[in-house]
C-alpha cells in the first residue's frame, strides 16, 4: 500500500498512513487515478507528483526487465536454431567425412577405384593425385595431366591396377596405379577429351570434343590399335559410357541426341532426339536396363532436365526439371542401383531414389561460386567423392533417412522458416506482455505454433514436395 499524498509505502493491513494520516490506496487504484491526474497536471499535489515519479521508475524497471528477458529469449532461440541446424547437417551427412587437400588449382575430376581403397583426382595444376580413401592421405602425384580433357579425361581400370589419363599433348597415358610408374602412351588421330574403360579392361572408348564431327573410337589397351570408329553424332560428343555388360556404349552430344550402339559395329543404333538442348551427361544403371541423361537448355533462363529412360526402347520413366538457379554438371548411378546422384552449379549435390525419382538427400556447398564436378560413388554405394573448383576433393556420406530427407529444404527455406518463426514468437510475447498473459501460457501458445509449423514441414518432407529445387515429371 502507498500513500497518495506523501508516497510512503505502508503495511497492507493499515488503512491510514502513519506518516501523514491520509487514507492508503492499493496499486491498481493509484494507476487508474494516475491516468486522470495526467490530464490535469495543474491539480497534482507534490505528494502525487512524487508518487508518479516513483511509478514511472517502476514501469521503466519492468520494461527493462521484460526487454532484457525478451532479448535473452531471442538470443537463445537464434543460438539453438544455429546449433540445431548444424547438428542436423552432421546427421544428414552435410559435413564431409574426409577432405583431400593438396591440389593448387581447381579440381576437375575425382574417381573412386573399383576396389574402394583409393581415389584419383585431376586438376588444373596439371597433376593426377592418388589418395588413400579411408584416411585421406596422399599416396603419390603423377604429373603431366592437363585439363583440356575437361572433367572426364581420367579413369581407373576395372582391376584397379592402372589409371588412364589424357595428357596435354592429347595422348592417352596408361600408368601403374600404385606408384605412377610403367607408363605407356597411346597416340591417336583424334584429340581425346573423354575416355571410358570397357568392363573387361581390354579396351577404351575415346571421344573427341575438339572437333564437331562427333567421332568416337574404340582402342585396344594392349596394342594401342583403333578397333572401331563410330560416327553417329553431328556435333561435339559430350560424354560416353560403356554398359555394365560391355556390349553397348551410350554417347551424348551437343546435337541433342542420346545414342546407344554396338562397340563392335555389328548392331543397330538406338537414337533418342528428345532432349530440348544439349545432351550433356549420362550414366548407366548397374543392370544395364536404364540410362539417366541430362538435357541442358540452349537458352540461358531455361531449366535443365534429368531424364531416366529404359534402354530397350528409350521410353521415359520419369524426369526432374532443375530450378533455374541450378545447372546440372554431372550424374552418377550408385553401384547397387538404388540411388542416383547429380551435381549442380552452384554448389549442390543431390541424391534421389532411382526407382521413384524421389529426392532423399542434398548437400550444399558454401555458395561462393565454387563448382562441383560429377560425383563418383564408392563401390559399396555408401559414399560419394566430389571434386570442387576451390582446389579440394571431399567425401560425403548421403543418408536417405528421415532426417536426411529434411535437406530437401535448402538453406534459404530453413532461414525463412526460422526468421518467420522468430518474428511470430516475438509478436506473441509482445502481445502477451500488453495483455498481461502469463509466461507459461505464452510458452504454450508458442509451442503449439512450432508444432503445427513442424508438422507441415514433415508432411512436405514425406510427400517429397519441394517447390525450390526439383519439379517431378517434367518432359
Q: Largest sheet, if any?
A: 5 strands, antiparallel
Query: What integer value in Å does the Rg equal?
Result: 34 Å
What fraction of residues sit in β-strands? 25-35%
Structure annotation, total helices = 5
How much helicity do the residues have? 10-25%
How would you describe the shape?
elongated
Secondary-structure class: alpha+beta
Strand order in the largest sheet: 20-21-22-23-31
Query: Unreliable segments (pLDDT under 50, ≥5 consecutive)?
Result: 27-42, 146-150, 401-411, 466-475
Average pLDDT for all residues: 75
Ends apart, CA distance between termini: 78 Å
Number of strands: 31
Descriptive keywords:
4-stranded antiparallel β-sheet; 475 residues; alpha+beta; elongated; single chain; 5-stranded antiparallel β-sheet
Please characterize this protein's 3D structure.
The structure is a single chain. This protein is an alpha+beta fold. 24% of the residues lie in helices and 33% in strands. The chain contains five helices and 31 strands. The protein has helices at 27-38, 46-92, 402-405, 411-434, 439-463, and strands at residues 2-3, 24-25, 98-101, 107-112, 118-123, 127-132, 138-143, 154-156, 162-166, 172-176, 184-186, 192-197, 203-208, 215-220, 226-231, 237-242, 249-253, 258-261, 270-272, 278-284, 290-296, 305-310, 316-322, 327-333, 339-345, 348-353, 359-364, 376-377, 384-387, 392-396, 470-472. The protein has a five-stranded antiparallel beta sheet, with no helix packed on it. Strands 3-30-29-28 form a four-stranded antiparallel beta sheet, with no helix packed on it. The longest helix is centred in the N-terminal third of the chain and has 47 residues, at 46-92. It is elongated, with a radius of gyration of 34 Å. The model is unreliable at 27-42, 146-150, 401-411 and 466-475 (pLDDT under 50).
Amino acid at each position: 500500500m502507498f500513500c497518495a499524498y506523501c508516497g510512503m509505502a505502508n503495511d497492507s493491513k493499515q488503512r491510514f498512513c502513519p506518516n501523514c494520516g491520509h487514507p492508503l490506496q492499493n496499486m491498481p487504484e493509484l494507476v487508474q487515478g494516475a491516468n486522470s491526474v495526467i490530464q490535469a497536471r495543474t491539480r497534482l499535489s507534490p505528494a502525487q507528483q512524487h508518487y508518479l515519479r516513483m511509478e514511472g521508475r517502476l514501469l521503466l524497471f519492468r520494461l527493462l526487465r521484460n526487454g532484457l528477458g525478451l532479448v535473452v529469449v531471442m538470443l537463445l532461440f537464434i543460438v539453438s536454431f544455429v546449433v540445431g541446424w548444424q547438428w542436423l547437417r552432421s546427421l544428414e551427412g552435410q559435413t564431409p567425412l574426409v577432405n583431400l587437400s593438396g591440389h593448387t588449382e581447381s579440381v576437375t575430376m575425382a574417381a573412386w577405384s573399383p576396389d574402394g581403397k583409393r581415389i584419383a583426382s585431376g586438376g588444373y595444376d596439371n597433376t593426377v593425385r592418388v589418395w588413400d580413401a579411408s584416411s585421406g592421405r596422399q599416396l603419390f602425384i603423377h604429373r603431366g595431366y592437363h585439363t583440356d580433357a575437361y572433367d572426364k579425361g581420367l579413369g581407373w581400370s576395372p582391376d584397379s591396377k592402372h589409371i588412364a589419363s589424357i595428357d596435354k599433348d592429347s595422348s592417352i597415358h596408361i600408368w601403374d596405379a600404385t606408384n605412377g610408374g610403367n607408363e605407356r602412351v597411346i597416340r591417336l588421330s583424334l584429340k581425346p577429351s573423354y575416355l571410358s574403360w570397357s568392363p573387361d579392361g581390354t579396351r577404351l572408348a575415346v571421344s573427341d570434343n575438339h572437333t564437331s564431327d562427333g567421332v568416337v573410337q574404340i582402342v585396344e589397351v594392349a596394342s594401342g590399335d583403333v578397333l572401331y570408329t563410330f560416327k553417329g553424332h553431328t556435333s561435339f560428343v559430350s560424354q560416353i559410357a560403356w554398359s555394365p555388360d560391355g556390349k553397348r556404349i551410350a554417347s551424348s552430344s551437343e546435337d541433342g541426341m542420346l545414342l546407344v550402339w554396338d562397340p563392335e559395329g555389328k548392331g543397330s543404333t538406338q537414337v533418342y532426339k528428345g532432349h530440348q538442348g544439349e545432351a550433356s551427361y549420362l550414366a548407366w544403371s548397374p543392370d544395364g536396363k536404364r540410362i539417366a541423361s541430362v538435357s541442358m537448355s540452349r537458352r540461358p533462363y531455361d531449366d535443365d532436365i534429368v531424364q531416366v529412360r529404359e534402354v530397350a526402347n528409350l521410353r521415359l520413366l520419369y524426369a526432374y526439371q532443375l530450378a533455374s538457379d541450378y545447372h546440372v554438371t554431372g550424374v552418377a548411378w550408385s553401384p547397387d542401383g538404388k540411388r542416383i546422384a547429380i551435381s549442380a552449379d552452384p554448389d549442390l549435390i543431390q541424391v534421389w531414389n532411382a526407382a521413384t525419382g524421389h529426392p532423399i538427400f542434398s548437400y550444399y556447398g558454401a555458395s561462393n561460386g565454387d563448382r562441383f564436378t560429377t560425383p563418383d560413388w564408392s563401390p559399396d554405394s555408401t559414399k560419394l567423392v566430389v571434386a570442387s573448383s576451390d582446389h579440394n576433393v571431399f567425401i560425403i556420406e548421403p543418408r536417405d533417412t528421415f532426417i536426411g530427407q529434411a535437406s530437401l529444404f535448402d538453406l534459404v527455406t530453413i532461414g525463412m522458416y526460422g526468421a518467420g518463426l522468430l518474428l511470430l514468437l516475438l509478436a506473441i510475447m509482445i502481445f502477451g506482455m500488453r495483455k498481461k498473459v502469463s509466461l507459461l501460457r505464452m510458452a504454450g501458445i508458442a509451442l503449439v505454433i512450432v508444432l503445427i509449423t513442424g508438422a507441415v514441414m514433415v508432411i512436405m518432407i514425406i510427400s517429397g514436395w519441394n517447390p525450390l529445387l526439383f519439379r517431378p515429371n517434367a518432359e
